[in-house]
Specification:
Elements: H1 2-5, E1 7-12, E2 16-24, E3 29-38, E4 44-45, E5 48-49, H2 52-65, E6 72-77, E7 83-90, H3 94-105, E8 116-125, E9 130-139, H4 140-152, E10 156-162, H5 163-173, E11 184-190, E12 195-201, E13 204-211, H6 215-226, H7 230-239, H8 254-280, E14 293-297, H9 306-314, E15 318-320, E16 329-331, H10 343-354
Parallel strand pairs: 1-6, 3-16, 6-10, 11-14, 14-15
Antiparallel strand pairs: 1-2, 2-3, 4-5, 7-9, 8-9, 11-12, 12-13
Helix pairs in contact: 2-4, 5-10, 6-7, 6-8, 8-9
């Protein structure tokens, strides 16, 4: 029975696939098994699994080598076509919302509503005529491709959610020190091919967007500037400390100049997100929304000094965090780092353990 009920959280990324298995403890969850494997070349692009059989084989092999015996999986949709936002709907009950969801959602979701999986949750009443609804949508081909890959690996997918929800669960929502109900946070998940930015205000998602500036952007920049092979550019990137570029000496460092130029593109997009938040604020428009913190996660966030550099540019608290900095998440001692790149996989694995899946 235990084997049949075991779940894994699977984060299918552009460069790597991360698989996590957790168990419930008295104070939260413990990460008991973990696997990481390279994503087969050209098999995932902008969240779409183009070769489910190859990806499934990679998952199955990685799980076997990690001695994972789970048969059920929780996965997430990702990519620029994924839509998450709090939007106004006509006031109605949950049953009516379910019946009219596609019609109401078609006003907001880009692309064909018939070709998307759409879910919604009532958040609060805005006035006598309208209510605030958290609307989430993902293209069917993105979701179906990931399910097909897991099926090829011999796994039964029980839950599909949005990547940022999983990352937030592992890093913010379950960490009581973060005071989600009263603070405004920006969660920035920097992957290999894209960066996802989510704004969570008083525990509610108010914005979600994806941008192409990510980890591979920095690597490609170094490759082009110094005629390097990918492996050498990656090694050079991880040897740099971007915080040094804030000093006069560091600004004379050629590799740091290349990295900083691309990070500045990311900073500009983050500032745009902050400005959008201000324009969408409700209530007294003369009082800007206070941002209590920006948190960086994902493999691309491992660049040393990245948080300090972004903080200096945006003027708000910025910190790189991993799952093991959450007091309720423990591990068996295998990991020496904070688990910055484990947020999505761990958050997915936590869902059926902490809640009914």
């Amino acid at each position: 029975m235990a084997r049949k009920q075991a779940y894994v959280g699977i984060d299918i990324g552009h460069s790597n696939i991360r698989i996590v298995q957790v168990e419930k403890t008295a104070g939260g969850v413990r990460l008991t098994k973990f696997a990481i494997t390279e994503t087969p070349a050209d098999s995932v692009r902008d969240g779409l699994v183009r070769n489910p059989e190859e990806v499934g084989h990679a998952i199955k092999t990685a799980m076997k080598e990690a001695h994972m015996n789970a048969h059920r999986a929780v996965i997430a949709a990702s990519g620029g076509a994924v839509y998450v936002r709090a939007v106004p709907f006509p006031k109605m009950n949950a049953a009516m919302l379910r019946e009219s969801l596609k019609f109401e959602a078609s006003r907001y979701v880009p692309g064909s509503i018939e070709d998307s999986y759409v879910e919604a949750e009532i958040l609060e009443n805005l006035n006598d005529a309208q209510m605030n609804v958290l609307l989430a949508a993902a293209p069917r081909d993105i979701v179906d491709g990931r399910i097909a890959a897991c099926k090829a690996a011999g796994l039964d997918v029980r839950v599909v959610e949005i990547e940022t929800f999983a990352a937030s669960r592992a890093l913010l929502e379950t960490d009581q020190t973060k005071e989600m109900g009263t603070n405004t946070y920006i969660l920035v998940d920097i992957g290999a091919a894209s960066t996802t930015v989510s704004v969570i205000e008083n525990g509610t998602y108010v914005m979600h967007r994806s941008m192409p500036t990510a980890g591979n952007t920095l690597t490609e920049g170094l490759k082009a500037a110094f005629k390097l092979e990918t492996v050498d550019a990656e090694a050079g990137k991880h040897a740099l400390d971007l915080a040094e570029f804030l000093t006069p000496e560091g600004q004379e460092n050629p590799p740091l100049k290349v990295i900083a130029a691309h990070v500045d593109d990311l900073v500009r997009e983050l500032r745009r997100s902050m400005n959008y938040l201000q324009t969408q604020s409700q209530g007294d428009l003369t009082t800007p929304t206070k941002i209590d913190g920006m948190f960086l996660c994902g493999g691309g966030a491992k660049l040393k000094g990245l948080d300090k550099y972004i903080q200096s540019k945006l003027g708000i608290p910025v910190k790189t965090i991993g799952v093991f900095e959450n007091p309720i998440v423990t591990q068996t001692g295998v990991f020496s780092d904070t688990g910055v790149d484990l947020a999505v996989a761990t958050g997915l694995a936590m869902r059926p353990v902490l809640h009914a899946a």
